[in-house]
Design goal:
There is one protein chain. The protein has three helices and ten strands; from the N terminus they run H-H-H-E-E-E-E-E-E-E-E-E-E. Helix 1 (10-18) runs antiparallel to helix 2 (22-32) and helix 2 crosses helix 3 (34-53). It has helices at 10-18, 22-32, 34-53; strands spanning 64-68, 74-78, 88-89, 92-98, 101-107, 116-121, 124-130, 135-141, 146-154, 157-164. It folds into two domains: 8-56, no CATH class; 88-164, Immunoglobulin-like. The protein is α+β, with helices and mostly antiparallel strands. A four-stranded mixed beta sheet has the order 3-8-7-6, with no helix packed on it. The chain has a four-stranded antiparallel beta sheet with strand order 4-5-10-9, with no helix packed on it. The protein has a two-stranded antiparallel ribbon with strand order 1-2. A hairpin with a 5-residue loop joins strand 1 and strand 2. It is elongated.
């Protein structure tokens, strides 16, 4: 029967699978360095804990910093929780000049119609859409002033028809 010293750790097994023969080297180094042995045991415990708990799709995010003192104590100071910001994406937009109006087609997947805001400023249309997971923003320069805008949204596609000013 193997005792605790001779039992191969998970770390040694993984290293040996990736680089054959290196597991034996890790075992020899572990015997000569108590610090390496402690770190390997710590890593093995963490791996076994994670395997026992199972896989989690949502990682735990910890904010803060940690430091080690000369005497080996580890201190961790948590910061206030900061919510990661959603990256602002620029939607794909096609612009068509169709005689008396300008047609815009924008791809805005992952947002609902209530999340979309369209602002018109003379020769500009500003699209802004924000949901829990996504944020889109784009300013579109138009070839002429527009006065009225019709909006349709279905399955992530926004269609805008802007009536040209003066027609």
């Amino acid at each position: 029967m193997k005792d605790k010293q001779d039992e191969e750790s998970i770390v040694e097994e993984v290293v040996d699978e990736i680089l054959p023969g290196m597991g034996r080297l890790v075992k020899k180094l572990k015997k000569t360095s108590p610090e390496l042995e402690r770190r390997i045991e710590e890593t093995d415990r963490e791996i076994k804990e994670r395997l026992k708990k199972g896989h989690s799709r949502k990682p735990t995010i910890k904010y803060g910093y940690s430091m080690k003192t000369l005497v080996g104590e580890e201190k961790a100071e948590p910061k206030e929780k900061v919510k990661p910001q959603i990256e602002i994406l620029e939607p794909i937009v096609d612009v068509f000049n169709e005689g008396d109006h300008i047609k815009l087609i924008a791809e805005l997947p992952g947002v609902s119609e209530e999340d979309i805001r369209v602002d018109v400023e003379r020769r500009k249309i500003i699209l802004d859409a924000t949901s829990k997971e996504r944020r889109y923003r784009k300013t579109i320069e138009l070839p002429c002033d527009v006065k009225d805008i019709k909006k349709r949204y279905k399955n992530g596609i926004l269609e805008l028809e802007a009536v040209k000013n003066g027609t």
